[in-house]
Design a protein that fits this description.
Layout (H helix, E strand, L loop, with lengths): L2 E3 L2 E3 L4 E6 L8 H14 L3 E7 L20 H12 L3 E4 H7 L4 H6 L11 E4 L2 H9 L2 E5 L2
Parallel strand pairs: 3-4, 3-7, 4-5, 5-6
Antiparallel strand pairs: 1-2
Helix pairs in contact: 1-2
Length: 143
């Protein structure tokens, strides 16, 4: 419930989760999700979890190398994760299909190495369900 403070309406802090479905450079969705997350946090809201699904798992690919004149969204997600201790979760099934593996998963799958970026973790869809149940709002980006 908002409260009035002079000429301004102050909304109480809310708990959000985000779901990102788009790769970093295929559309503006991932960049929009990042800007939205930064805005939420700067306004005092809480982010319970950011869940990357479908092509959105590419946001956690450590070997992506965008050109110098483009934003490094993976690096920006990592910076935000370190600053706010965010829970950045990559869907493990979507990641395996698209070749994004933690070192542990790479060894289990008998691959040469993992490429999951630091600060991201692999987990199942149950983490998205938990995010929905534990947040006041779920905002999705991409589709």
């Amino acid at each position: 419930m908002p409260r009035s403070a002079g000429h301004f309406t102050i909304w109480p802090a809310m708990k959000f989760s985000l779901a990102v479905y788009s790769a970093p450079h295929s559309t503006q969705s991932a960049a929009s999700a990042l800007r939205f997350a930064k805005t939420l946090l700067s306004e005092g809201h809480e982010i319970y979890r950011i869940f990357f699904y479908c092509d959105g798992i590419q946001n956690g690919n450590s070997i992506a190398a965008p050109p110098q004149d483009e934003a490094d969204l993976t690096g920006e997600w990592q910076d935000l994760q370190r600053q706010y201790n965010l829970d950045l979760v990559i869907c493990i099934a979507a990641a395996q299909r698209r070749g994004v593996l933690s070192q542990r998963e790479a060894e289990r799958q008998e691959k040469l190495s993992g490429n999951l970026a630091e600060g991201f973790e692999l987990a199942g869809l149950g983490q998205l369900t938990d995010a929905v149940a534990s947040s006041e709002r779920l905002v999705t980006f991409g589709g």
